[in-house]
Specification:
It contains 6 helices and 12 strands. The chain is of the alpha+beta class and 341 residues long. The strands form 4 sheets. Strands 1-4-3-2 form a 4-stranded mixed β-sheet. It is globular and about 65 Å long.
Length: 341
């Protein structure tokens, strides 16, 4: 288990495993009392699959459909359970057929099918079950119970921090009262931030460049005896409780005073920013161009003041992301600096 304890499980098949999980019970409390818990996570190694009589290899694409005749799904149907609409895969969510998937789910992570070791987690293959449980438990304590890839967890963290109201899909009983600032309403983006094909997309687009770059070391760097590795995610920890997001459409503003804490896009000229010769260009254009808030305060525009172009899109109804009394850290990509939520 994630806390280091060992609990015997007598189950010899998947139905028995689910029944044992419900009796245990397992799973962490919700991040906020107003929300729903994510549900227990069971990590099945090759030894566990052999004990449960499940195949060690992932099913082909045809058998991943939630209505296929795969042995795992047949066992689920025999006890009145099913997978969610995503069907079968390295990460699965199972729930009673007559229940509510949002509050009655059990999650499976099957390592030999690609979970944790072969996906974006990239955990070492030689971890013992105890070490694997400890690694997952540490992430669950810092962020949330993993129920998919890191990107999936970051996306679901948004709802964990600002949970919406939820009623049981069968009984209609209120099971989560939610918070008033839950990010549940779609909002239009600023035109420069709209993706291609969006009804608001126009000629103006963001000039920010994606950070997807590497270079070989120089001869002088290669001659040094040690290498220092920095986890870039840690740079965001200190600011994760100060980020503000918006739950309303972007507002077109003329002559705005630049605020480095306001989510939005700014029409500014950053062509005088000269990168280090060993680094890639920071921006995709020269002259006046649209840049998001994180890029705009870089020199020479570091000082707060009016936008040089006199135009900007600022977010409305900004809400803080800090949750007093919790130990949740927001990972890059899980919270947006954009002018829409």
């Amino acid at each position: 288990m994630a806390d280091g304890r060992v609990r015997p499980c007598p189950a010899r098949d998947l139905p028995g495993l689910l029944e044992w999980t419900l009796r245990a019970p397992l799973g962490a409390a919700p991040i906020r009392a107003e929300g729903l818990p994510s549900g227990p996570l069971l990590v099945l190694t090759s030894t566990a699959l052999d004990r449960l009589g499940l195949p060690a290899e992932a099913p082909d694409q045809a058998h991943r459909h939630p209505h296929s005749d795969h042995i795992l799904l047949r066992q689920l149907r025999s006890i009145g359970w099913q997978s969610d609409d995503h069907g079968m895969g390295p990460w699965m969510r199972l729930h009673p057929t007559t229940g509510d998937p949002a509050c009655e789910s059990i999650h499976l992570a099957i390592t030999t099918w690609g979970a944790l070791h072969q996906d974006a987690w990239q955990l070492p293959d030689d971890l013992s079950p105890t070490q694997l449980a400890a690694a997952i438990g540490q992430y669950a304590n810092l962020v949330r119970t993993p129920t998919g890839t890191p990107g999936t967890c970051g996306h679901r963290l948004m709802s964990d921090l600002r949970p919406p109201e939820h009623r049981h899909t069968v009984t209609r009983a209120l099971v989560a009262r939610g918070v008033p600032s839950a990010l549940t309403t779609r909002a239009d983006p600023a035109p420069c931030e709209a993706p291609p094909g969006h009804q608001l997309a126009g000629e103006d687009t963001l000039a920010d460049s994606d950070i997807d770059w590497w270079r070989p070391p120089t001869p002088e760097e290669a001659s040094r005896p040690h290498v220092v590795c920095l986890a870039v995610n840690l740079h965001h920890f200190a600011d994760s409780n100060n980020i503000r997001v918006s739950d309303a459409p972007a507002q077109h503003v003329f002559h705005p005073a630049f605020d480095p804490k306001t989510p939005g896009s700014w029409l500014v000229d950053l062509s005088e920013n000269h990168p280090h010769p060993l680094l890639p260009p920071a921006f995709a254009s020269n002259g006046l161009a649209w840049h998001t808030t994180p890029r705009s305060p870089t020199p020479p525009c570091a000082a707060s003041g009016p936008s040089p172009s006199g135009r900007g899109y600022a977010a409305r109804n900004q809400i803080p992301t800090s949750i007093p009394g919790t130990n949740v850290c927001a990972w890059p990509g899980s919270l947006s600096f954009k002018a829409w939520a």
